[in-house]
Amino acid sequence: MENKLNDCIIQGMAMNNQVRFFAAFTKDIAEEAxxxxxxxxxxxxxxxxxxxxxxxxxxMSKNDSDLVTLRIQGxxxxxxxxxxxxxxxxxxxIIYNPVVDLPPNLEGHLNVGDAIGDGMLLVIKDIGLKExxxxxxxxxxxxxxxxxxxxxATSEQIPTSVGLGVLMNYDNTVDVAGGFIIQLMPFAxxxxxxxxxxxxxxxxxxxxxxxxxxxxxxxGKMAVPDDAEKAGKTAVPDIAENxxxxxxxxxxxxxxxxxxxxxxxxxxxxxxxQVEAVRPTAYKCNCSRxxxxxxxxxxxxxxxxxxxxxxxxxxxxxEFCNSHYxxxxxxxxxxxx
Length: 337
Ligand SMILES: [Zn+2]
Known about the structure:
By secondary structure, the chain is of the alpha+beta class. Helices cover 34% and strands 26% of the residues. The strands form three sheets. Strands 7-6-3-4-5-11 form a six-stranded mixed β-sheet, covered by helices on one side. Strand 6 and strand 7 (133-138) form a beta hairpin. Helix 1 packs across helix 2, helix 6 (206-218) packs across helix 8 and helix 10 (301-310) packs antiparallel against helix 11. The longest helix is centred in the N-terminal third of the chain and has 19 residues, at 41-59. It starts with 7 loop residues before the first strand and ends with a helix. The protein binds zinc ion. Zinc ion binds at residues 285, 287, 318, 320-321, 323. Residues 285, 287, 318, 320-321, 323 line the site of zinc ion (ZN).
């Protein structure tokens, strides 16, 4: 049976409820971003990592209408990134210079740190209040995962470990992408902390784990259990109820990717891993002709009149998804009627 690995996020508790975690499989999201923005491999990695983090942080939302935006302002050639996720983990993003090419770093990896450079990470949470909540921290390594770990520790005061990874094929398309966010509950004891540290120390990387797991699934070396009972504590809840919370088709089957993510969390956190929710996640832009019209109107009468005087239709491109909107002179005239 062909296992389609659909993008998804699992959420759960581990180690006797002393730890909560989110883990994400985001291959399609990273590949969609690559196609839209025509990113170089370094930029695919950078944007894919931030999109993965954004999708998981969207899943942390308390209210359905919450939005979370991650903005990296760095002095490197990538000129910064922005990612926005809604509470349903519909995520979109942009990297302002998508064609950065640099030699590999000292470890022989894509040099995301130098592409981003030094700067700040902003986490902007719009939870329906007059002003959004903005948390701002320095970039520590500019490799994104460490920067988010530092953000959670300092700005939200939650001991957290973030892992993110995007692996490319030889043709520079995305092979696998994913990540995790592990957070200590306030009452976590020292044994638990030591166990996590040990678990993380022996865990090589998200991409190593995911690419091996995907290979094992595809070659039949690893099999998804027929039902949750056989999987022992891998109790994956029925996804149908969660599916309606996202814009992904309700019949999106996340069972294989959720299984792989559960195995990844067990590898780090031990066997006591309880999955509480599985949800699809997707690259999705919410732009529309109506929204773009609004943005045009907000430029003001004077600006629109000068466009009319120019006598040419106005073209607008959505920077998140490259959707193209054209407005005729007659339509512009309607805006200032
Ligand atoms: Zn768009």
